[in-house]
Design goal:
The protein is an alpha+beta fold. The chain has ten helices and twelve strands. The longest helix is centred in the first third of the chain and has 18 residues, at about 60-80. It is an enzyme of class 2 (transferase). Pfam families: AIRS (PF00586), AIRS_C (PF02769).
Length: about 325
């Protein structure tokens, strides 16, 4: 028996009963009606995940649901915004209810954890699975973390251990061998990234600039440098490599993966010297490590330096959608 679009919406999306007080009308009408808080700016972001491009066609749908929301929450984290609402446009080649149930479990588990309500969207039939999710959050005026505030002398930092998702992709394509003891870890880092929401909120009033690392650390850092009209010196020996990455690749290849691997969804940020003590005072409550990896410079461009002062060269700095 065929399943209608409206029964799918009611069964898997509208039936989820988490309700925010600032949602006057959610799923079920032509538009949602929302009540943005007074004195807050609305931060909004959108990402699309395409089967065979952003996730494997046979990927665990629960992980796909988690990631579809996580990549958007990561953008909000990079702006120092508190998550609130989400909309979802879902294209499916068939109405696979088992897949949908698992997808919703993953998405709603993360949504509930961060107080996010799904307020609307669209479902449609198409040749492949395409997931477009938009997330909205709030930030006080003047407190958003932006890409254009870095200044020469600011310390350069990254959360977590970049390169783990890149290692998982390399292993999936047979370009790296990972010990069995590390397989679950790197798979989770690729399929279930943790958006650094608490860290982003803690960086408000501390960081001068920030970005989330989705297309590779070197490439995404370049966006901060371009928007801030500065440069940076990144010391590659300072890069925090996870035990899985360090054990799976030689040092040179591990550094390249940490600099260029996408899908990490860590935060890269700059902190003025006078605010470093504030940073160090807040990190005890963070769920991840933070590492100083360099400094912002007046000279434009990204300099990758070894411990002996020589340059570390990269052929490519990150993922290119049309490269």
């Amino acid at each position: 028996m065929s399943v209608s679009e409206f029964s799918l919406i009611e069964r898997y999306f509208a039936a989820h009963r988490f309700q925010r007080s600032d949602v006057a009308l959610g799923i079920g009408d032509d538009c949602a009606l929302l009540l943005p808080p007074t004195g807050q700016q609305l931060a909004t972001t959108v990402d699309t995940l395409v089967s065979g491009v952003h996730f494997f066609a046979d990927a665990d749908p629960e992980g796909v649901g988690h990631k579809a929301l996580a990549v958007n929450l990561s953008d909000l984290a990079a702006m120092g915004a508190t998550p609130a609402w989400a909309t979802l446009a879902l294209t499916l080649p068939q109405a696979n209810e088992q897949w949908l149930a698992a997808f919703c479990r993953g998405m709603f588990a993360l949504a509930d954890r961060h107080g996010v309500q799904l307020i609307g969207g669209d479902t449609t039939h198409g040749p492949i699975t395409v997931i477009t999710l938009q997330a909205h959050g709030f930030v006080p005026p003047g407190w958003a973390l932006r890409r254009d505030g870095a200044k020469p002398g600011d310390g350069l930092y990254v959360t977590g251990t970049p390169g783990d998702a890149g290692l998982a992709l390399a292993a999936a394509f047979g370009k790296a061998t990972v010990a069995a003891s590390h397989e679950n870890y790197i798979r989770a880092r690729l399929e279930r990234p943790e958006p650094r929401i608490a860290e982003g909120l803690a960086l408000r009033g501390v960081a001068s600039a920030a970005i989330d690392v989705s297309d590779g650390l070197a490439q995404d850092l370049g966006h901060i440098l371009e928007r801030s009209r500065v440069g940076a010196r990144l010391e590659v020996e300072r890069l925090p490599l996870s035990p899985a990455l360090a054990a799976s690749l030689d040092r040179e290849a591990a550094v390249v993966t940490a600099l260029t691997g996408g899908d990490d969804y860590e935060l890269c940020f700059a902190v003025p010297p006078e605010r470093i003590s504030q940073l160090e005072g807040s990190v005890a409550k963070w769920s991840c490590r933070h590492t100083r990896i360099g400094v912002i410079t007046a000279k434009p461009g990204l300099q990758l330096a070894r411990a002996n002062g020589s340059a570390f060269d990269l052929e490519q700095r990150g993922y290119e959608h049309f490269g």
